[in-house]
Fold these 2 entries.
Entry 1:
Amino acid sequence: MSAVIMDGKALGLKIREGVKEKASALKEKGITPCLAVILVGEDPASLSYVKSKEKALHEAGMESRDIRLPEKTSEDQLLSIIADLNNDEKVHGILVQSPVPKHISEEKVNQAVSPKKDVDCFHPESVGNMVLGRQGFFPCTPHGVLMLLREYDIPVAGAHVVVIGRSNIVGKPMANLLIRREYNATVTLCHTGTKDLKAFTLQADIVIAAAGSPGMIKPDMIKDGAVVIDVGINRVSDTSAPKGYRLCGDADPAVMRKCSFFTPVPGGVGPMTIAMLLNNVIEASNKFEKKI
Ligand code: GUN
């Protein structure tokens, strides 16, 4: 079997075109969608992520409020900046790039962002709404995965999906979205405490790898014809690469000989995250317009 490569870059661009139209409709009503993007510290990977997010916002005709804070910023200073942004009517969404420096509590930061502006879906109220099947923001990366599955007509309802990884950003929300009634999947959530990972992945119609472990998913772990969605973005050193590293997913690309569909790294799930973030900024701006 040779796998269909799922093109997240193309779908991401298509979604961003739709976002641009929605942004333009809002602008005609006098609202320019604006996302505050906060980066604390100088981590190069985080800096490159926030720059991509800001560029994508501008390309879609939206605004970004770029806030760069030094590593030594105190927790109180950051919380006070977030409080000001919560009250700022020109800002519709707030994103604090994760991870924040160790002396700042990520939990307090997540709770400080108003749920109305929580485009990452990190606030406990947003997470609660998502788990309870209520309306609200969907977290960007898991939502991007669902959009990719839909684009390629891959049935999710009734499918057995094995999610690998229990992070708050991907694994946990991914599993919770999949069991909402509108997706109706049967989900197994595996993690570092799982004893025989292969015994579970071999039963999966869809494997979603979000473990942060380069190349850990091997062909002998995949059922013939299964779908492999690779959410891992790992930097592995490569002296022959211009930057001294290359990006590598959690799946060994050799799994392609076993599966029916496969997301590449880069160019699979990654571009979908930004597209769904922009979509959430539109949603936040719409709520602002309707005062809900
Ligand atoms: N760090 C890694 N992924 C994300 C994300 O989706 N949002 C934020 N705020 N930080 C991240």
Entry 2:
Amino acid sequence: MNNLKLDVDGQIAVLQIARPAALNALNSETLDELNQVLSEVEARDDVKVLILTGGPDKKDNPYKSFVAGADIKEMVNFTAAEARAFGMRAAEPFFKLMNMRQVTIAAVNGFALGGGCEIAMACDIRIASESALFGQPEVGLGIIPGFGGTQRLARLVGMGRAKELIFTGSNIDAQEAYRIGLVNKVVPNEELMDTAKKMAGKIASNASFAVSIAKAAINNGYDMDIKNAVEYEANLFGITCSTHDKTEGMTAFIEGRKEKNFTDF
Ligand code: DAK
């Protein structure tokens, strides 16, 4: 891979988008690599949580940029057909982040602009370093957010705030992103990766199959009417009741045992 670095430690994978010359902007090659690596990670039973972050910039500053958007230098001469193909290239890895059985955490370590904010929003959870900056500046470039930003931002922060951010193209800092619900947590820069790994470890210590079923219940139920969504939840609940992990988790509770041997995934 030319633009990504994958590092697996135990049950946690850290995937770095590493294009230091372009502040980790997403070009076609990076999107293709991302698609490939996410398929590989999803197939691994040993990996329970994926942390997505940005690599350091040219001066080796790890807190400069998460992802500074889609690659403007690649997009500038796009025809309509090429733009469509670029969008389709991104759709697959973005949906993988959203729907893969592992939990995905974006550790946002700097600029999260345009496609950078959008890829963070495709993850399940966002943790920001205190110097992170978020925004959807597309209308200033004559385009609109096209990696799901008009849809995911409104779902996360509500229509009014999404419209303000997208129509003004203004950036917001990490505290403001936290205040409006765009990120789950803000931490000092140097605590970012430890915080993300600690949360990932806590998630991985639970029954991973149950966590992945809960993820599917939340994602798929969100767009259903409440009656069908609750029925869907009941069906998924039934599935978790047929697992070894359910017997193990409940038996451990009854026996007063802290250690649990979860094996399903
Ligand atoms: N694309 C390409 N190169 C970028 C880049 C980007 N998005 N952002 C930064 N770079 C490059 C700069 O050109 C510069 O390259 P050199 O000049 O050194 O060769 C290098 O990274 C360092 O950047 P700066 O020198 O500008 O660094 P500063 O600290 O001064 O400024 C900045 C950092 C992040 C404020 C600034 O670089 C900036 O404003 N960057 C652009 C941010 C932006 O507008 N992002 C949104 C892009 S639009 C689509 C779906 C989605 C999209 C597109 C299509 N379809 C469905 C087809 C998404 C669109 C977007 O994301």
